[in-house]
Write a structure and sequence with these properties.
Blueprint lengths: L1 E2 L2 E2 L1 H12 L5 H10 L1 H10 L9 H13 L2 H10 L2 E4 L21 E4 L4 H5 L2 E5 L6 H16 L3 E4 L5 H11 L4 E5 L12 H10 L1 E4 L9 H14 L2 E4 L7 H11 L3 E4 L7 H11 L3 E2 L3 H8 L21 H9 L8 H8 L3 H13 L3 E4 L2 E4 L1 H12 L2
Parallel strand pairs: 5-6, 5-9, 6-7, 7-8, 9-10, 10-11
Antiparallel strand pairs: 1-2, 3-4, 4-8, 12-13
Amino acid sequence: MSTEDGPDAELLARVFLGRVLEPGDEVGGRWVREFGAVEVARRLREDGPRPAGVSDKRWAGLRARAVRAAPERDLDLARSAGVRFVRPGDTEWPAQLDDLGDARPTGLWVRGRPSLRIWALRSVAVVGARACTEYGAHMAATLAAGLAERGWVVVSGGAYGVDGAAHRGALGAGGATVAVLACGVDRPYPRGHTGLITRIAQQGLVVGELPPGEHPTPSRFVVRNRVIAALTRGTVVVEAAYRSGSLVTARAARRLGRHTMGVPGPATSVLSAGVHELLRDGAGLVGDAAEVIELVGDMGELAPDRRGPVLPRDLLEPDARQVLAALPGRGAATAAEVARGARTTPDDAIARLYELRSLGYVERQGDGWKLTRQAMISVQAGRSEC
C-alpha cells in the first residue's frame, strides 16, 4: 500500500478519485482503465485535457470536488481509525470484484483484521427487507448461523431488518461476517446499529467505497449493492417487496453469474412478493443453510434428503403393511375381506394378522379383526401423507 517514503502515486491517485468520483461511475471507471488512475487524477487536479465527450457541467462538478480532495488527509484519518485502503492489485484485493468492469470500485476502505480476499472466497450474501417480519428476521438469523457454523462468511449491508438479523446470527454462532456500508466505514450507519457495526469491526470486517466521514445517500445504497453481489458466491433474499433494494443485489448477482436464491414466504405477504418473483424467474428456492451451500459450495456439499418422520408402521415388512392398510378405519373385517383388500390369499392374510396382533396393531373381535387405537393413529398418519 505504500513505499518507504510514504504512499505511492497510484495509491494517492485512487484515494483522490474515491473523493471525486461517485461509486459505480462507469464513465470514470473507463477513464481509469484507459489512462490510468494517476493520469486521471492529474487531469482533474490540474484541469488538464478532459476526456472526450465530457460536458462542461460534468467537468466543472468533478473539478469542484477535486479542489477539496486531500488523499493524504484521508489516509491519516483512516489510519487513526484503524482503517486501511485496499486497491486493485493489492494482495488483499478480491479478484471477483474485477467482474464489475468499469463499475469496479477504485478501492475499498476496510476496517477489521481479517483478509478481505480470503474471507470473500467462501462467502454468501444474506439480504432482505429493512421492515421485515418476525419470520424474516428468524429466517435470516437462522440461515446466517447455519452458514457460519459450516465455515461460510455472511455478507450483508448492516441495515435494519434482515441485514442486522443476518449479521447477529453469524456473530451469535461465533462465525464470520462482513458489513458493506454505503458511507465511510468510520461512520456507522444506521446510528441505531453503531454497537452492531462496532462489534462486526472487532470480530469481522466493515467495508465501504466511500472515504472517511462520507455520509450515505439513496443512490449510494443502490450502487453499494453491486459490491455485495460481486464479492460473494451467491445472494440469498429472505424477504423483499417488489421495489426492495435487496432485489437490486439479487439481479446484480445474476448478471455477474453468481447464484441467486430466495426464501419463500406466505403467498399473502407483500414482503415476500419480490422474493416470489425472483423464484418464478429462476432463482433457487432455499429454506436452510444446507440448501444454500448445496448451490454455492463445492461439488459434493449436498443438502440431506428431506423426508417426514419414521413411523412405526414404516418398519413393517411390505406384505404386513398391505394387510394393515386393508383393515377398515372403523369396525371389524373378516380375514377373507382383509385378504381381498390386500390382494393376497386368506391364509396369508391370517398369518399377517396374527403377526400384527403380536405387535399391538390389531385385535380379534368375534370372527373379525379390527385396528387397535395405536394402529388407527399410525394408519391415519400414513393416509394423511398421501
